[in-house]
């Protein structure tokens, strides 16, 4: 059984940039619904107990859109919670800062690319900072699509572009949300750890193993280091 991960901070810890009301609704209702539906659909597909990363990839391979959409959304949201931290955290440093300088000319250039990609993405989806053979890049994916099913891409950070991520706080001002998110709550320590994993130093993010099944301990294929 897949669980709804606990938030790594209190509901009000990201205020005023992400309100407690938004987090309670987004995590406790939207994310929970994706997890509940994944549990139901994974069991029907004979995939219950498999690591969620495997379920996402297998659902895409089979063309099972319902399972893919819910499992990928469950994974994306868990990665999103880790991509944030309370305001006032450290800026990018070390290898991450050097890669940002190489790819974007500095933090301001990365922010410009990130906000432009997110604002320009039509309708729902996700805006990612990723690494791969060409270095750091900013990409977006549509609806539930994610980086687990993309070759040559390893995620460092993600921001949710679905309206439920920001509408209570920003109404239809996606640009304002992305700018304030990037400047104040983006978790650069998490991004640095993901970059290290992409370089073969440590493990990348994985969704919590399903509970109540012996196969939960089976190894999962983590996001593939490609940089």
Automatic annotation (TrEMBL):
Entry keyword set: Metal-binding, Oxidoreductase
Listed InterPro entries: Mn/Fe_SOD, Mn/Fe_SOD_BS, Mn/Fe_SOD_C, Mn/Fe_SOD_N, Mn/Fe_SOD_N_sf, SOD_C_sf
Catalytic reactions of this protein: 2 superoxide + 2 H(+) = H2O2 + O2
Protein's UniProt keywords contain Ligase: no
Alphabetized GO MF terms: metal ion binding; superoxide dismutase activity
Annotated residues for binding of Mn(2+): 26, 77, 160, 164
Coiled coil: none
EC number per UniProt: 1.15.1.1
Keyword Metal-binding: yes
Manganese/iron superoxide dismutase C-terminal domain ranges (all copies): 92-193
Region ranges (Disordered): 203-227
Domain Manganese/iron superoxide dismutase N-terminal stretches: 2-84
Biased composition (Low complexity): 214-227
Taxonomy, superkingdom: Bacteria
Task of the protein: Destroys radicals which are normally produced within the cells and which are toxic to biological systems.
Family the entry assigns: Belongs to the iron/manganese superoxide dismutase family.
Protein's name in the database: Superoxide dismutase
Organism: Phenylobacterium kunshanense
The organism's taxonomic lineage, starting at the top: Bacteria, Pseudomonadati, Pseudomonadota, Alphaproteobacteria, Caulobacterales
């Amino acid at each position: 059984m897949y669980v709804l991960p606990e938030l790594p901070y209190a509901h009000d810890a990201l205020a005023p940039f992400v309100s407690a009301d938004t987090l309670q609704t987004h995590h406790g209702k939207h994310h929970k619904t994706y997890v509940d539906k994944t549990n139901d659909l994974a069991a029907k597909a004979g995939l219950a107990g498999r690591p969620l990363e495997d379920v996402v990839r297998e659902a895409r391979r089979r063309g099972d859109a319902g399972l893919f959409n819910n499992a990928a959304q469950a994974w994306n949201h868990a990665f999103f919670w880790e991509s944030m931290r309370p305001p006032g955290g450290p800026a990018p440093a070390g290898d991450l800062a050097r890669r940002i300088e190489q790819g974007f000319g500095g933090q301001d250039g990365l922010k410009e690319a990130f906000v432009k990609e997110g604002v320009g993405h039509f309708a729902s989806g996700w805006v990612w900072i990723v690494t791969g053979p060409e270095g750091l890049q900013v990409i977006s994916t549509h609806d539930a699509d994610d980086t687990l099913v993309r070759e040559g891409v390893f995620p460092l950070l993600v921001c949710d572009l679905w309206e439920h991520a920001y509408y209570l706080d920003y109404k239809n001002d996606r640009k304002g949300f992305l700018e304030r998110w990037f400047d104040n709550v983006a978790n650069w320590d998490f991004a640095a750890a993901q970059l290290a994993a992409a370089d073969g130093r440590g493990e990348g993010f994985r969704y919590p193993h399903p509970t109540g099944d012996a196969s939960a301990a089976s190894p999962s294929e983590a996001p593939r280091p490609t940089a």
